[in-house]
Write a structure and sequence with these properties.
Helix content is 50%, strand content 13%. By secondary structure, it is α/β, with parallel strands linked by helices. Helix 5 runs antiparallel to helix 7.
């Protein structure tokens, strides 16, 4: 008599995966509607998780969740492409007991995520398309350049105050402050020792470089604003008093 092999079939059943993401490994907890299946570590690759789910829960409906953070949203996109219904949540919005706070481990975190996902206690954050995320990188880069430029300008002013060097009256006007002539005056300053002069010149060079980079970045942002995706939004913003 030939033995019959019964194949696993999870059609119509929901499987939940809570992922505690890290750079070198993930801690994953798997739950069904009734019980906790397993908690394990795996390489930080979405395809590995999908392969595990497909092998142990074939034809099931897969759900997963991880917390927003350093890893961005590429994991979300990958899991979605594999047919896994993934969401990303704000870490501060995940319900946490006092016991879980005191016993905070990767295992506890992944179990907590999977359990709340199964109980439908989590609210997903909105994730923009890849193009929009890359555009935001450009805007963040501009903001960073502005902060860096301000920081170096403040360092130059701090050095002037520290050594009692007064700024000439003609450069105290708004239109002359940090002008090309003012930078030229700064560059001609001589300290008592070469070490002071050279370190001050390096600060000036940084300001000139950052201004050049910021000018180029402003051109790119203006070009981005002409994109059809943002053009209408820009026009609406300009109708607001004080902006347009």
């Amino acid at each position: 008599m030939q033995a019959q092999i019964k194949k696993l079939d999870f059609t119509g059943q929901n499987i939940y995966a809570g992922i505690d993401v890290h750079k070198k490994s993930w801690k994953v907890s798997i739950y069904s509607e009734e019980l906790h299946h397993k908690t394990f570590s795996q390489p930080p690759k979405p395809e590995v998780l999908h392969q595990y789910l497909a092998k142990h829960f074939p034809k099931g409906t897969y759900y997963s969740v991880y917390e927003a953070g350093f890893c961005g949203f590429w994991i979300h996109d990958k899991l979605q492409s594999f047919g896994v219904n993934n969401i990303v949540v704000n870490p501060a919005d995940v319900p946490t007991t006092d016991k879980e706070k005191k016993r905070k481990t990767d295992r506890v975190d992944s179990n907590k995520l999977a359990r709340h996902l199964r109980n439908r206690d989590l609210e997903a954050i909105y994730i923009h398309k890849r193009d929009v995320l890359e555009d935001r990188v450009l805007l963040r880069m501009r903001r960073m350049l502005v902060k860096d430029l301000t920081r170096y300008k403040n360092r130059i002013k701090a050095d002037l105050h520290f050594f009692g060097i007064e700024i000439p009256e003609q450069f105290n006007k708004n239109q002359s402050y940090w002008s090309k002539r003012f930078l030229g005056w700064l560059n001609e300053l001589k300290f008592h020792r070469w070490s002071g002069t050279d370190s001050f010149k390096i600060l000036i060079e940084q300001v000139i470089t950052l201004r050049k980079n910021l000018l180029e970045m402003n051109k790119k942002v203006r070009a981005l604003s002409k994109d059809k995706y943002y053009h209408k939004r820009e026009a609406l913003l300009k109708t607001i008093p004080g902006i347009g």
